[in-house]
Design a protein that fits this description.
Layout (H helix, E strand, L loop, with lengths): L10 H7 L5 E2 L7 H11 L11 E6 L2 H10 L5 H4 L2 E8 L6 H10 L5 H14 L5 H25 L3 E2 L7 H7 L6 E10 L1 E3 L9 H4 L9
Antiparallel strand pairs: 1-6, 2-3, 3-5, 4-5
Amino acid sequence: MTIQTQQAASYLDFVQSRRSVRVYDPTVQLSKLEIEEIIQEAALAPSSANLQPWRFLIIDQQELKEQLHPIANNQDQVLSASAVIAVLGDLECLEHVEEIYTAAVEKGFMPQATKESFVARLNAMLPHMSEQQRKEMALFDGGLVTMQLMLSARARGLDTVPMAGFDKTKFKEAFAIPDRYVPMLLLPIGKALQEGHPTTRLPVERITFWNQAFQG
């Protein structure tokens, strides 16, 4: 069954209704266009120097989901979801800096002189970052885009669950992921067959501190 999804009425609707769903309707299929639209919206998230180090591997063929299943610690949401989006971080995203900033000039978002200044600074700084620093940057930006991806899916009445619990080494081997890409998480996406259960949150006064160091 293929469904046409629609966006929810308000931001609060889909923020408050988002759940981590682990049982999906296996008859629901998402089209390539629907998934690409969700990713296009998610990619509006901010990133370090606008380098957009996120990459997405879409796994929607059942035989590949079955191959992924043991790699993902036999978590069954991998099998029943319409697709699994693997979020990867590109450690060599600097190679796209000229393309990104040239496009900004062409769209009138910045003058040529500003672009040249930005590119020169990035080309001088980023190659000297350690692999760990580049990995941390990719992980930070990957978190931003993943949250936006989940909310964009929820706005269409779809469900997701972020999964960090998988064997990243075996994943890279199974799907021939080059070393430049760091697997960050798996994100099953589809239509819930069983709703995710609500969870509690610490009260705001327990997690917020005003104008002083954390106490306790």
